[in-house]
Design a protein that fits this description.
- It is a single chain.
- The protein is mainly alpha-helical.
- The protein has one domain.
- It contains 13 helices and no strands.
- Helix 1 runs antiparallel to helix 9, helix 1 runs antiparallel to helix 13 and helix 2 (23-32) runs antiparallel to helix 3.
Length: 244
């Protein structure tokens, strides 16, 4: 079995890992908050996959990014998710703030559009928010990062894209299933309804957990207690690959 195929399968298996926990509420919650937007899950998951690849390469090869502490990325991502949570919890207040700041007539009016529901820019930003703080429990990911990329940028990039593609595809399937389920329930599109508020609370909790490092503690607890066995499956696949 080739490393490229293992990288793709590893991306699929990562959805079972505890390190994916911060991503799931964003992918599922962001996709199902408006079940009428068919392209929302695709945009969010694609943005997440691209973000993982881009930030992995930047942190690996850019000295400008190496000197930036990890806490800066966690605060960046956490802040974005908290802002999204506020737009869901207090939509009327957020609309008044946008109007008060006169974003619609400003040169940077795109920012106001990003804050609106069903916005393409907003969906991209939502999906990309966790790219800078993504950490994988996948041994394949670390082999690509520590062994393949230093030896060959092209081979490392291809395998990294394969890994991110596998992860994005499985997350997309989960998001589509969630959106399909929510689409059958009446009255969930109300911006002031309980469903949007619930998603807002989830985003708020995820954002705060990322900023405070609670998400990493949860991941460590799950791993230390042997609650994740998919790594063993992935390791067996890696053993069949000749990696120098």
């Amino acid at each position: 079995m080739t490393l490229l195929l293992v990288s793709f399968i590893a991306g699929l298996l990562t959805v079972l890992a505890p390190c994916i926990l911060p991503l799931l509420p964003v992918i599922i919650g962001g996709s199902v908050q408006d079940s009428r937007s068919k392209f929302k899950p695709y945009v969010i998951t694609a943005s997440l996959g691209i973000s993982i690849v881009v930030f992995t390469l930047l942190l690996k090869f850019s000295t400008a990014f190496i000197d930036i502490p990890q806490s800066a990325w966690t605060y960046f991502s956490g802040t974005i998710l908290i802002l999204f949570s506020l737009t869901m919890l207090f939509p009327l207040l957020w609309a008044k703030i946008i109007l008060k700041l006169n974003f619609e007539h400003a040169s940077n009016g795109w920012l106001a559009k990003a804050s609106k529901k069903n916005s393409f820019i907003g969906d991209v930003l939502m999906g990309a928010a966790l790219g800078p703080v993504f950490s994988s429990c996948s041994p394949t990911y670390f082999i690509i990062l520590a062994t393949v990329l230093p030896q060959s940028f092209l081979a490392g990039l291809i395998n990294l894209i394969a890994y991110a593609s596998g992860l994005s595809i499985i997350l997309l399937l989960i998001a589509l299933l969630g959106q399909r389920f929510v689409g059958k329930i009446e009255g969930l599109s109300n911006p002031n309804g309980w469903f949007k508020k619930t998603i807002g609370v989830i985003f708020l909790i995820v954002g705060i957990s990322i900023m405070t490092g609670v998400d990493k503690k949860i991941e460590a607890f799950v791993l230390d207690n042997g609650l994740f066995s998919a790594v063993d499956i992935e390791q067996k696949l890696l053993d069949s690959v000749n990696i120098k």
